[in-house]
């Protein structure tokens, strides 16, 4: 019985209580392992940062319970659209991160567009009967991670791309491409 309780406590420490996805702490553990594996074997690693558009408006107009429903719906769709080897985590607030091992940049773009479309086309029906439409802004970092690189710059590049998507109208995907120098170039898709 103690062993079962310890396992449940360990699961709770790794899981976001609202979405049942990996929480940020567990994400950092998993992405470090995946980054190390990609660097060791030279595999592609893509990372998607997904942010719910106008989330504050949902909370202000419909209440925090509706906001929770929006977060849960997006989490469910992200999980449904992911492959078994992908990792989906709630990064914070209305932000999610997807780690896509062995995923080429064009495949990451296809995945991001598929996720965005699935969220956009899935209505959320509130208990009042009102139908809400949700969109997301997605930033992508994709490629072969440099030897010795840490996961933080990958997340920062995807996050910066996601903010470009927000500033350029929301409900879109932006790719962060790292050229040979250290500056990150951003391009809207």
Task: Please outline the helices and strands.
Layout: H1 2-14, H2 24-41, E1 45-52, H3 55-62, H4 64-81, E2 87-92, E3 95-101, H5 105-120, E4 124-125, E5 131-132, E6 136-143, H6 151-167, E7 173-177, E8 185-188
Structure, described:
With 189 residues, this protein is of the alpha+beta class. 48% of the residues lie in helices and 22% in strands. It has 6 helices and 8 strands. The strands form 2 sheets. The protein has a 6-stranded mixed beta sheet with strand order 2-3-1-6-7-8, sandwiched between helices.
Structure keywords:
8 strands, single chain, alpha+beta, two-stranded antiparallel ribbon, 6 helices
Measured by DSSP, the beta-strand proportion falls in 15-25%
DSSP E strands, number: 8
Query: How helix-rich are the residues, as a percent range?
Result: 40-55%
Number of helices: 6
| Low-pLDDT ranges | 179-189
Largest sheet: 6 strands, mixed
Rounded to the nearest angstrom, the radius of gyration is: 17 Å
Brief account:
The protein is of the alpha+beta class. The chain has helices at about 1-15, 25-40, 55-60, 65-80, 105-120, 150-165; strands at about 45-50, 85-90, 95-100, 125, 130, 135-145, 175, 185-189. Strands 2-3-1-6-7-8 form a 6-stranded mixed β-sheet, with helices on both faces.
């Amino acid at each position: 019985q103690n062993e079962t309780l310890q396992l449940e406590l360990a699961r709770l420490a790794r899981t976001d209580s609202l979405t049942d996805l990996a929480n940020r702490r567990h994400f950092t553990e998993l992405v470090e392992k995946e980054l190390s594996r990609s660097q060791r074997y030279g595999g592609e690693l893509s990372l998607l940062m997904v942010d719910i558009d106008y989330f504050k408006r949902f909370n202000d107009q419909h209440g925090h319970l509706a906001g929770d429903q929006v977060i849960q719906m997006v989490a469910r769709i992200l999980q449904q659209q992911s492959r078994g080897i992908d990792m989906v985590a709630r990064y914070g607030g209305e932000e999610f991160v997807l780690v896509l091992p062995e995923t080429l940049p064009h495949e990451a773009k296809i995945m991001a567009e598929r996720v965005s479309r699935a969220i956009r086309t899935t209505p959320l029906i509130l208990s009042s009967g009102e139908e809400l439409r949700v969109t997301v802004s997605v930033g992508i970092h994709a490629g072969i991670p440099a030897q010795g690189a840490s996961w933080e710059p990958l997340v920062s590049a995807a996050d910066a791309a996601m903010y470009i998507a927000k500033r350029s109208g929301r409900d879109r995907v932006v790719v962060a491409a790292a050229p040979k120098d250290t500056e990150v170039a951003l391009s809207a898709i």
